[in-house]
Each structure stands twice: as structure tokens, then as C-alpha cells.
Amino acid sequence: MQNQTETGIINETPEGGAEPGPSGRDSGTIFRGDWRGEETMELEPTRPIGVFDSGVGGLSVLRALRRQLPHEDFLYFGDSRQAPYGTKTASQVRQLTRQHVGNLFQRGVKAVVIACNTATSAAIDCLRQEYPDRILVGIEPALKLAVEKIPQGRIVVMGTQMTLQEQKFAQLLARYAGEREIIPLACSGLVELIESGILEGPQMEDYLRQKLSAYLDGLGGIVLGCTHYPFVKKAIAQVVGEQVALLDGSEGAARQTRKRLEQAGLLRQEGDGRVTVENSLNTPEILALGQRLLNL
Questions:
Q1: Which residues contact 166 (CB under 8 A, 6 or more apart)?
Q2: Of the listed 226, 239, 266, 293, which one is catalytic?
Q3: Alpha helices in 69-198, H assignment, sequence order
Q4: b/e map of 43-58 (b: 16 or more CB within 10 Å)?
Q5: Burial of 165 (0-12, 13-18, 19+ CB in 10 A)
Q6: What is the arrangement of strands in the sheet containing 275-279, beginning at the earlier edge strand?
Q7: Cα separation of 142 and 230, whole Å?
Q8: Domains, the chain, ranges and CATH?
Q9: From the CB of residue 162, how many other CB atoms can be counted at a distance below 10 Å?
Q10: Using an 8 Å Cβ cutoff, are 229 and 248 in contact?
Q11: C-alpha span between 247 and 251 (Å, rounded)
């Protein structure tokens, strides 16, 4: 588990947060020690939902989760110290993901959303074997949605090298390749730009033009196959045009999370949800970026 002195924390509270009541719990207090418990403790609807990503990208999924689940508390952990995951081996990503998901469960969360396409590709199967009775939701490129929503034109799937070369994506691609021209496009370096806070401007636009210019003719849509990429939708649209659909899997992951919580009787029905964001890279810059992205 990350020590609090080593983990950057953002605490976001609703307006008019109250002082703690007799239970010590309120809508304006960071978790710190509140939710640390054993995996064997009985789960309750009031426990938070854990969200894990390789950095700040999963905040795009957290935003969707908050829209779908406004009464829930969320504990988000981003591993920016080890980012990007997309350039690591599957074994390395699996090890890191297992470690951080295990830490979230040990802290008493009722569910974990793996808000990272790369981590999902590498680790979701082994994690489901390791935690067969726990709610685990992953995310994958929204290729099914793209084929359904985009009536014509080629579809480009932007993702990390590792996501696009993993078996999960190969199976997804095989399922829809006969229906449309689908082009996987590895975007090495894009996560690093976003993690450094570059979301628009000449450097970002030059990068995107270099990557996308060869595919503009007949382009119907782009699947954003990394949870970092929705934060540069505006810059992508400037390169490809507003008429090109940009799709990601965050809303689908949020709906699946709600469904799983309802099925388990763990959906929280009332109260103002609160958010705690932690990052393994404890710098003022990464915490400020996290706050910025969460509130975009």
C-alpha cells in the first residue's frame, strides 16, 4: 500500500460540505484511513468504488462514472510514476495492475474499475480468477459502438502498442473486421504528452497530424482506445474535422459498473458522492493536472 507521505491526494467535495458527524464520515473528508480494511470484511453500499489507471487517463472514465453514479464515493489511484504502461511488457503490466488492484481491495472498496485499456488487456483475466467473488470492471476500445454508430467510412483505432498487440484486441478486431475497414494505429508518445499536461497547441497538433494525416481520406470515425486520449478530443477534431466521430468506452464501462452494483445489491441510492484522487507520482504538477482533467 502506498504510504500517504508518498501518495499525492486530491480531495474533491461538493459545495456546502458538512463537518463530520458522530460517525466521522461526511461528504468533505478524504478517505486516508477511513476505508482501510480487510478483503474479508462484509461489503456495504456505502463503501467506495476503486478506480485504477496507469496515470491520469482514467480520470476520463471517472467522470463518466460520476455521471452514472452520482451518489457513490470513488477512490482513484493513478500510477503516473510508472507511466506509460503501453511501452512495458504484458508481464510487467500484469504485475503492476495486480499490485494496485489488490491494494484497493485491501482498503475496503466494494468494486474496482480498471480504467486503463492496456491494464485491462494484460490483467483482467487473471484478476477475475484471483477475485472471483468481487466486482471487477475493465475497459476495451469501443469498436462495437463505432461499427454500430458510424454508417460509413474507415475506422481508425488509436491505442498503445501493447493494447493493440494483445489477444483481447485481436479477438475484438476479428469480430468486426468483415464489416468495415478498421485500422489499428499505435500512438507511442501520446500518453507522455498528456501526462505532461500538453492537451492542445502546436506540439500536440504536430504529433496528431503526423499520426493521422495518412488516414483522413474516407475517415468515418476514430476509436480512442486509451483512456488518456479523450482529453485531446479537441485537438484531434482540429486535425480530422468536426464531422469525424470520436468514440471511447468510458460510458459503457460506467453503465457496466452500475449494472454490476445493482445485481450485487451494492448500489448506493442516496447521499452526495465524494472523490479522492491519489497518484504515485507525488508532485504538485501531477496533482494540479489531475484536478484540471477531472473538472474539464
A1: 90, 121, 122
A2: 226
A3: 90-106, 117-130, 143-149, 161-165, 167-176, 190-195
A4: bebebbbbbbbbbbbb
A5: middle
A6: 8-12, 275-279, 74-78, 49-53, 111-114, 135-137
A7: 12
A8: 8-139+250-294 (3.40.50.1860), 143-247 (3.40.50.1860)
A9: 23
A10: yes
A11: 10
Cα–Cα distance, 79 to 214 (Å, whole number): 33
Cell of 162: 501493447
Cα angle 289, 290, 291 (rounded to 5 degrees) comes to: 90
Write down the residue that cell numbers 442516496 correspond to. 270
Q: What is the mean pLDDT of the chain?
A: 88
Going by DSSP bridges, is the β-strand pair 8-12/135-137 parallel, antiparallel, or unpaired?
Answer: unpaired
Neighbours of 251 (CB within 10 A): 17
| Per-residue pLDDT band at 42 (split at 50, 70, 90) | confident
- Tell me: the pLDDT tens digits for 164-209? 999 999 999 999 998 899 999 999 999 999 999 999 999 999 999 9
- Whether residue 25 is predicted with pLDDT greater than 60 in this model: the reply is no
3-state secondary structure of 275: strand
- pLDDT confidence band for 14 (50 / 70 / 90): very low
Identify the active-site residue in 116, 127, 158, 194.
Answer: 116
AA identity, residue 45: P
Q: Rounded CA gap, 33 and 91, in Å?
A: 31
Q: Using alpha carbons only, what angle is made at residue 173 by residues 168 and 174, rounded to the nearest 5 degrees?
A: 100
State the cell numbers at 235.
485537438
Distances 251 to 70, 165, 180, 198, 218 between C-alpha atoms, Å: 14, 24, 23, 24, 27
Contacts of residue 242, Cβ cutoff 8 Å, sequence gap at least 6 = none
**187 in catalytic set:** no
Distances (CA, A) of 289 to 54, 117, 225, 281: 14, 21, 21, 12
Place of cell 454490476: 260
**Which three cell numbers mark 166?**
494483445
Instruction: Tally Cβ neighbours within 10 Å of residue 178.
Output: 7
